[in-house]
Amino acid sequence: MANGNTVVKTGLGFGSVLAITISWSVNQSIIWAVIHGIFSWFYVIYYALIR
């Protein structure tokens, strides 16, 4: 079970970092980067579909 929990935590962390990085490169705003980091994978998927 411990390995499954580690994968989930790492995946959520990576999604947040990816969303913040994409948001910063597009908007150059810390506030938007934080908001997109909270939504993490939802923003990453949205960005992939729209762009």
Molecular structure report:
The protein starts with a helix and ends with a helix. The chain contains 3 helices and no strands. The protein is mainly α and 51 residues long. The chain has one domain (2-50). The chain has helices at 2-27, 30-39, 41-50.
Summarize the structure.
The protein is mostly helical. It has three helices and no strands. It has one domain (2-50).
- Radius of gyration, whole Å: 12 Å
- Report the sheet-strand fraction: under 5%
Give the fraction of residues assigned to helices.
over 70%
Summarize the main sheet. Answer: none
Mean pLDDT: 83
Low-pLDDT runs: none
Report the strand count: 0
Number of helix segments? 3
Number of domains: 1
Name the overall outline: globular
Write the H/E string, N to C.
Answer: HHH
Secondary-structure content class: mainly alpha
C-alpha termini separation: 37 Å
Protein name: CPBP family intramembrane metalloprotease
Organism: Corticicoccus populi
Transmembrane segments: 7-24, 30-49
Keywords: Membrane, Transmembrane, Transmembrane helix
What does the secondary structure layout of this molecule look like, with pairings?
Layout: H1 2-27, H2 30-39, H3 41-50
Helix pairs in contact: 1-2, 1-3
Protein traits:
single chain, 51 residues, mainly alpha, 3 helices, 90% helix, globular, transmembrane helix, membrane, CPBP family intramembrane metalloprotease, transmembrane
